[in-house]
Amino acid sequence: MNKACRTIGLISATLLIASCGIFSDEEDEALLPMELVKIDETVKIKKIWSAKLGKDSKFLLVALRPAGDGSRIYAASRDGTVTAFDPESGKQIWRTKLETELSAGPGVGEGRLAVTARDGFGIVLDAATGAEQWRADIGAESLAIPLIKNGTVIFQTIDNRLDSLSLFDGNLRWSIVQSTPALTMRGSSSPVSVGSTVFAGFDSGRIVAANIDSGVVAWEVLLSPPKGRSDLDRLSDIDGAMAVVGQDLYAGGYQGRMAAFASESGQILWNREVSSYAGVSADWNSVYTTRDNGEIVAMTRTNGNEIWRNDSLLRRDPTLPVPFQSTVVVADFEGYLHFFSAIDGEPVARERAGRDAISSDPFVIANRLYVQSDNGSISAYVVVDDRPSRDAPDVAADES
């Protein structure tokens, strides 16, 4: 979910307070984004290419971020432009103009590409050529990246509905509807899958597991029970990313909990009180999240015990921390990419993709990092190993 609007609200509130002059400088300062300090860069990051996608998406709540299938990188812009790139060089392979504003995607799989339009349509393209295959009315806007699997494309809409459409012709196969609370945040968690099961998080604080082919619900768990008396206090949306490692599912909600689940049964393996807009990412050792105040937290994947936390990005609207080789990378509202050690959370590098905000989560495939800025551009990065090379000893010569 794009967090730029929260940033605007924060800055506006700060300016209003400052103009009223009723608070001390210290209280004003506590509302401002954390200033960046110089760091000792121990990891070298290199931008290998960048490209323009289309018009910017400043201050809009959209869920547009790069995706890949192992041979190409795909990206979509708000103005309806969808582009395929060579991941090595950044060379454009094809570009399609859909003549409609987009709100989420792309999702990639089985030779197809899926995006959603702001006017409530799901659109599927051929991944090889970019040719449009079909578009179907999904009833409402979607801010979730579509999931393609088992000959279906699954869309989750902002009115708490999960629809499965045939990947080949767009016909509806099944639908799951959850109740919508009186007050919710604008956004949606993107569905994920394990085997033949799809998992979706809803504004009600519930996670639903369903069979991809039939739509039959396998289990349903309340991750974040609403608390408090007012509608605002009872917000418990699951709007951030969910993560899958092996057979385990990880999810987090706003004003609620972060938890690990057994994907086959829904059994809660562990849970922690953590409030997050961004959701959860994971590698084989750890799970990572950004708390709603901008603090980065890492926990062990097996039991949820805290490993480290870093508060250097407070109120900078950081994205979800994404594992990237030996680091986790986070983007912020000033276009910076922050790299932290996955082991202890210490900053190891910093790059600036541009002067515009980055609200979509960074995307990693193979040994490359891809970042889509709100100004409608995409950049690719690698970690550079600049250690001096050493000649291998001539063992035979030494023995002689």
Could you explain how this protein is built, in words?
The chain is mainly beta. It has one domain (4-386): YVTN repeat-like/Quinoprotein amine dehydrogenase (Methylamine Dehydrogenase, Chain H, 7 Propeller). It is 7% helix and 42% strand. It is built from 3 helices and 33 strands. A 5-stranded mixed β-sheet has the order 2-7-8-9-10, with no helix packed on it. Strands 1-33-32-31 form a 4-stranded antiparallel β-sheet, with no helix packed on it. Strands 3-4-5-6 form a 4-stranded antiparallel β-sheet, with no helix packed on it. β21 and β22 (268-273) form a beta hairpin. The chain is globular and about 55 Å long. The protein starts with a helix and ends with a helix. The model is unreliable at 1-23, 231-235 and 394-400 (pLDDT under 50).
Give me the secondary-structure topology.
Layout: H1 4-20, H2 25-29, E1 44-52, E2 63-64, E3 67-68, E4 73-76, E5 81-85, E6 92-97, E7 102-109, E8 112-117, E9 121-126, E10 132-137, E11 147-149, E12 152-157, E13 161-166, E14 172-177, E15 192-194, E16 197-201, E17 206-211, E18 217-222, E19 243-245, E20 248-252, E21 257-262, E22 268-273, E23 281-282, E24 286-290, E25 296-300, E26 306-310, E27 322-324, E28 327-331, E29 336-341, E30 347-352, E31 363-365, E32 368-372, E33 377-384, H3 395-399
Parallel strand pairs: 2-7
Antiparallel strand pairs: 1-33, 3-4, 4-5, 5-6, 7-8, 8-9, 9-10, 11-12, 12-13, 13-14, 15-16, 16-17, 17-18, 19-20, 20-21, 21-22, 23-24, 24-25, 25-26, 27-28, 28-29, 29-30, 31-32, 32-33
